[in-house]
Amino acid sequence: MKSQKIKMNKSAQKFMYNTVRKSLLLCLSLTPLFILTFSCKSTKQAPQTVEPEIIESPLPALPTLKKYDSMFWEIDGSDKNGEKSKVYIAGTYHLSDERSFPLSEEIENAWNESDRFVCELSEADWDVFQAAVDKKVNESIILGTDKSLVDELSPNELMIVSTLLGEEQTASLICYEPWVLNSILSTLIMSLTGLDFTKSYDYYFIQKAKSEGKSFEGLDSLETQVNLNSYGDWETQLQILHQTISSFEDLQAAIDEINLFYEAYLSGDAENFEKLYFDDIKKSMEEEPYYEDYIRELLDKRNELWAKKIAGYLEEGGSTFVFAGCAHFIGENSVFNYMFD
Prior knowledge:
By secondary structure, the protein is α/β, with parallel strands linked by helices. The chain is built from 14 helices and 7 strands. Strands 1-2-3-4-7-5-6 form a 7-stranded mixed beta sheet, with helices on both faces. The relative contact order is 0.21.
């Protein structure tokens, strides 16, 4: 590793630490803790109105799914009284830039005609999310135990962390369970890509709902979101932390990988995004046994629950606008597979 690439003075260290901590509190629970492999240089074209692909349910009585030429879907169904109902789903990427905008005409129209709005977390849970994360961090302190990250990390790993965050911050962070340091480092890598949660569809729709006086419900509980950050026992968290620290030995490669994934999202090509995402997951499962269990918690279990909730929105009636991570709506165990298979 060429240390000069990540050398910072004390002011820069303080600024970076505060920046990544804020990013962690805002969006890390919506983003896998693992650095996935993703780099291409395509640019997003102006939104086009296209004829959607219609996927008919095998049973006529069930809803139908329309897939647009982007990470946007429409489910047409009926409520408990037999009246027409809809659920629109805008698949999001939790770290973005200005190229995500403007919104397509389909998404704008869907928002305007909807009477129910749904995020991964409800409006009430967003308001207490930072306090919940802080509480989880405070509960993860390991002072007074026989465990210590000083003993678990190699001298080279400690040097890398200290160079990135400074000696003072490193000394404080190694007094916690491994997931806390891993979260800070993972978010640091993400922040260095130039992508930002405040430029994502998630943030845009949250602010839009608040400005228009519209409340939004949640697909997940607050506990589910917070616990995803601290996934795994001590040994599993350590393995994840070792992997994250090793990413800084070739920092540019890690940044390029994340940007590749984002470029695939911008293209609106769900099939290409799916291939990149799940090829990486399969590779990670082969290399790390714990990863399969993590994916079940991150995706499969939540997707099954989300499918039931979305079916419930159809039954309740009206038009519902859902905005949530696009990875939940692709792949073999997607929300749609639970709903339509």
